[in-house]
Amino acid sequence: MAEFLEFVDVSKTFGRLRAVDHVSLGVRRGEFFSLLGPSGCGKTTLLRMLGGFEIPDTGRIYLDGVDITDLPPNRRQVNTIFQNYALFPHLSVWENIAFGLRVAKRPRREIFNEVERMLALIQMEEHAHKKPHQISGGQKQRVAIARALINKPSVLLLDEPLAALDLKLRQRMLIELDLIHDQVGITFLYVTHDQGEAMSLSDRIAVMNQGRIEQLGTPAEVYEAPRSSFVAAFIGDTNFFEGRVAEIINDDYILMQIDGFPSVVCFNDKKMKVNDLVYLSVRPEKFRISRERPQLDGRYNLISANVEDIIYLGSHTKYWVRVDEYRLAISQQHGRFLLDEQPIRWKDDVWIWWHADDGYMLERYSEADELLIQTPPEEVGQNGAVPAPPRAEV
Amino acid sequence: MKRSPLPLLTTLLVLVFFYLPIAVLVANSFNASRFGGTWEGFSLRWYSRLWHEREIWHAFRNTMLVATTATLVSTILGTSAAFALHRYHSRLQRFHYALIYTPLVIPEILMGMSLLLFFVALKIQLGLFTIFLAHVTFCISYVAMVVLARLQDFDFAIVEAAMDLGAGWWTTLWRVLVPLLAPGILAGALLAFTLSIDDFVISFFVAGPGSTTLPIRIYSMIKFGATPLINALSTILLVFTFLVVLLTHHLTREHHS
Ligand SMILES: Nc1ncnc2c1ncn2[C@@H]1O[C@H](COP(=O)(O)OP(=O)(O)O)[C@@H](O)[C@H]1O
Ligand SMILES: [Mg+2]
Q1: Nearest to B166 among A84, A87, A100 (CB)
Q2: Strand runs labelled E in chain A
Q3: What value, to the nearest 5°, has the Cα angle with vertex A76 and ends A75 and A80?
Q4: Measured from the CB, is residue A11 less than 6 Å from ligand 1?
Q5: Residue A42 alpha carbon, nearest atom of ligand 1
Q6: Which CATH code is given to the segment(s) B52-256?
Q7: How far apart are CA A303 and CA B126, in angstroms?
């Protein structure tokens, strides 16, 4: 059961603020593991406790079976890529990379070979003599990675390593990070508030909120089967519905009563009973939209709606439609483009439908979730657009 | 588009106003004439006369003694104060900052006076030691301000980075902190050194018999009308101060490029 890297019941309080709240978490050897959550949720603090820069108030941290909770930073087999790289400004790229080996007093020959190997890995051979202020942001990033990797850490910690880069560079570094991880085979613990980064890089993701872990799973699991409405809203866009179980159809399906809607068929994986409160999440891409009323079987929910906004995005179109009090986000991939087809326009009456299996019931409903649910769907799930949840005070 | 000659004119006027007196002084120090009014040819005679003045050498020795010791002590104390101000944040720190900052704006005459009264009240013998103490008092503030400015654009994350890469405290100090902060600290020290050498008002108040420093010496020479000697001495001081300022400028600029 013991994992390669393990946090057991770790907490950290700053004054009255509980930055990390009884977190238990296991990371496997060689894994690309992400901590994902909004700014201020305690990701950096958790990482700093692993690096040795903060001492936890409660709990222990184990690395490869050894308790490292009280070791100073220089005696831990972990290395960090800091948020702003923290390269040594007075040392050249070459000496920055060599720093760890110099401090460890390794033989000259070994230092030379290792640094050259690292320079090749990050493709910076011709910049070796430059000082940090003479290279670009993306290059600094790569030097920081090489400087950390040269020590052959058991775990590489990355704290929002792409946040300071512009969009183009970010996408390129994303691919490079993935390649480097494949090449070196070291465990990566990656901190980000960007769900796109986390989804594309990670083997597994821990979604954090207010110092706690809301859900841990593969990218597909947290996207398709979010445990809480927080997770559902933070990872991707979604539409929330609130209602009660009206009728049990069979073992798998129920009918749900939502204000302003006809009865809605739902897949009942949570084994709800009649009259239970249900929160349902339906992702925008699970909807279909059309002006013509489609012919559907009983496992579909079909509702008439009115179009309020349309954004054409080339590969797909986003619609916002109104059903009673709900403003729903719908995203539609374009299939064949027919010139003579009459496109859906603003203020059109349309039909929308989704399959019962594509709605997902959510377990929990916290105060923070409520804030998210009140936010219009188009503002949820984009980077940083999530409203700051109220802080847990101790 | 025709440019107005006004800015150029103003600049020239200001330069003339500032530097003409100094230029005249420097020129006269090489003037063979005893009186500044007429030019009687280039000569180094005032410099050679200066060389043989025992009193001047005595004052020079005093000034150097005070300047080096005061610089050493105020650099250590001022740097510590700057670190404390930068690293710790509490309500007391505002008070601390005010305490450090005030000597920069207090009128010198007030400072000299209060220090004199203080030393007399404590029955401390006036002399080189009291001048040293007085100089340390105001030099601390200048050193602290210079070092603090340096710390403000110092990213302490690199200290954590060094430890993260396996460096202990000593290694971090020698490989990271000292190389990066030494220029700032040295700049503070050089500033303290020039201030100590130049200081007249405060030194004048707290000096005792036999503890004449160069500026005090110059002042008393004026009373005896030995102008050509003063010209030579002032020129030497000027050149020296100028060199130190250049060095300071060079040090503070190095890592900003
Ligand atoms: N040294 C500190 N002193 C006081 N509060 C802190 C300190 N470090 C972090 N915090 C607070 O703890 C919370 C979590 O911070 P952090 O771990 O940096 O979040 P994240 O990295 O997820 O944005 C924040 O509210 C932050 O203000
Ligand atoms: Mg952070």
Answers
A1: A100
A2: 5-14, 17-27, 32-36, 58-63, 66-67, 78-81, 155-159, 187-192, 204-209, 212-217, 239-248, 253-258, 264-267, 277-282, 288-290, 300-312, 316-323, 326-333, 349-355, 359-362
A3: 120
A4: no
A5: 17
A6: 1.10.3720.10
A7: 98
Angle (CA) A156-A162-A165 rounded to 5° is: 145
- Interchain proximity A73–B255, CB inside 8 Å: no
Please indicate, yes or no, whether the overall pTM of this predicted structure exceeds 0.90.
no
Residue A295 in any domain: the answer is yes
Q: Would you state the structure tokens that stand for residue A340, as one six-digit string?
A: 């003579």
In the numeric block, which tokens belong to residue A158?
A: 């990355």
- Token digits of residue B145: 């301000």
Q: Which of A110, A103, A141 is nearest to A124 (CA)?
A: A141
Mean pLDDT of chain A: 87
Shared-domain flag, residues A176 and A287:
no
Q: In ligand 1, which atom is closest to the CA atom of A48? A: 17
Give chain A's domain count.
Answer: 2
Domain boundaries, position A78: 5-224
User: Is residue A394 in a domain?
Assistant: no
Nearest residue to A213 (alpha-carbon basis) of A2, A7, A4, A5: A7
Cβ <8 Å between B165 and A79:
yes
Nearest alpha-carbon partner for A146 in A94, A68, A188: A94
- Tell me, what's the ipTM? 0.75
Q: Whose CA is nearest to atom 7 of ligand 1?
A: A14
Q: Tell me: do A239 and A209 sit in the same domain.
A: no
| Least distant ligand from the CA of A38 | 1
- Domain assignment present for residue A268? The answer is yes
Q: Ligand 2: distance of its center to the CA of A83 in Å?
A: 8
For residue A87, give the chain B residue with the closest CA: B158
Q: Is A346 in the pocket of ligand 1 (CB under 6 A)?
A: no
For residues A183 and A269, membership in a common domain is answered with no
Share of chain B above pLDDT 70, in %: 96
Residue contact B160–A100, C-beta within 8 A = no
Q: Supply the CATH number for residue A341's domain.
A: 2.40.50.100
Closest-CA residue to B197 (of B140, B147, B131):
B131
Our separate counts of H helices and E strands in chain B read: 12, 0
Positive/negative CA dihedral, A55, A6, A64, A101: negative
A contacts of B175 (beta carbons < 8 Å): 99, 102-103
pLDDT 10s digits, B144-201: 999 998 888 888 889 999 999 999 999 999 999 888 888 889 989 999 999 999 899 9
What atom of ligand 1 comes closest to residue A46's alpha carbon?
17
Same domain, A163 and A49: yes
Note whether A54 and A83 are within 8 A (CB): no
